[in-house]
Amino acid sequence: MQLEKPQVIHLFHHLPMNVGSAHSPVEYLTMRVEKVYISTLTCCGQSVRKLMVHEQSRRWLKKGLLAAVAVCILVPVTYKIIPALLQDIIYAYRLSVPFFVDLSQPADLSLNHTVNMYLTSEEGISLGVWHTLPESRWKEAQGKDLMWYQNTLNDGSPIFIYLHGNTGTRAAPHRVGVAKLLSALGYHVVVPDYRGFGDSTGEPTESGLTTDALHVYNWVKARSGDSLVVIWGHSLGTGVSCNTAVKLVEQGVVFDGVILEGTFSGVLHPIPFNIFTWYYWTFPGIKNLYSFLTEEKKVVFPTEQNVKKMKCPILFLHSEDDHLVSIQTAREIYEFAAKAQSKDRVKFVTFDGSLGYLHNGLYQDPKLPGIIREFVKSL
């Protein structure tokens, strides 16, 4: 606000008379006003700073309270969600690849001597299963019903139960390839999808998968007569096979023979993963969380311990260029098994890495039929 003229004159009357030639009364008054202005600004600035500090403190307090509330809510929720995430990481069962395949129609995949059926492993759990006949009987099989297929299991031909790995269904190309290979050798092939996989109901767990495998084995044995029943486990299926073998040993039952392809151990080596689940591993802390939860939930598939208890002949198959499970891991497990039995009953066959079979492609090797045939003859 501007000073009125009388007030200005009044101020000038109070100006000191000895201001000197360097400062006129107007300049002196200006200097005094500037000092007052600066002093006022300084006081205001200190007040503003105090207000800012106070406001900042309030903001941090609000953030702290919100964080505490979030922790209280998210921790129990996360504890409920993480086990489901863990299931996805280990089993990847929600990925029903290949897509748009009708699992009830195996003939669509050139399995024209295969029947689709469903077995109930326990209350509320229905397993989708394929039974493929020896290739030599494909013409005879045309138009036959489920009961006819079941009755063929006691025709004296060896029977293979193929326990597949994680991700996808029994219609995956390499699984179909194994079924065709064994059928061409004159064997029956029974290929189940575990609970939660494919058109099977339920949610997968380690104990649940073992229960499913036990049920399929008992179902086959009840119909097989004197036929050999051999288990072929691949990847995750090797863990299921060994769990099942130990359960049967505890009951006084021994498998006729077991093939372990791409075998792993949840203790010696992580669960084999695939291109659809790698991104979980990029999240900070997921590895530590996985280790904690697997210990807590006992999701281990302790194959190296199980093979020490198994009493049946075992054939290990492993590619040197396996990108999911190192051949060193497989060798370690083989050594445990051979030491528990003998190297006459436990064999280890490797495939040259230059062939490019990786984790899923061994069924393509031209020497594999002869290897399988010799193993079956030794049983």
What features would you describe in this structure?
The longest helix is centred in the first third of the chain and has 67 residues. Helix 6 packs across helix 7. Helix 5 links the parallel strand 3 and strand 4. The protein is elongated. It has an eight-stranded mixed sheet, with helices on both faces. It is built from eleven helices and eight strands. The chain is α/β, with parallel strands linked by helices. It comes from Ameca splendens. Keywords: Membrane, Transmembrane, Transmembrane helix. InterPro entries: AB_hydrolase_1, AB_hydrolase_fold.
Can you give me a brief rundown of this structure?
Residues 158-258 form the AB hydrolase-1 domain. With 379 residues, this protein is α/β, with parallel strands linked by helices.
Features:
AB_hydrolase_fold, AB hydrolase-1 domain-containing protein, alpha/beta, 379 residues, 13% strand, transmembrane helix, 8-stranded mixed β-sheet, AB_hydrolase_1, disordered N terminus, membrane, 8 strands
Describe the strand arrangement of the main beta sheet, using strand numbers. 1-2-4-3-5-6-7-8
Number of strand segments? 8
Q: Strand fraction band?
A: 5-15%
- Rg over alpha carbons: 38 Å
Structural class: alpha/beta
Q: Total helix count?
A: 11
Pfam family, one: Abhydrolase_1
Transmembrane segments: 65-86
Protein name: AB hydrolase-1 domain-containing protein
Keywords: Membrane, Transmembrane, Transmembrane helix
List strands and helices in order, with pairings:
Blueprint (H helix, E strand, L loop, with lengths): L4 H9 L11 H67 L22 E9 L2 E8 L5 H4 L4 H6 L7 E5 L9 H12 L3 E5 L13 H16 L7 E6 L1 H15 L6 E5 L24 H12 L5 H4 L7 E6 L7 H14 L5 E6 L16 H10 L2
Parallel strand pairs: 3-4, 3-5, 5-6, 6-7, 7-8
Antiparallel strand pairs: 1-2, 2-4
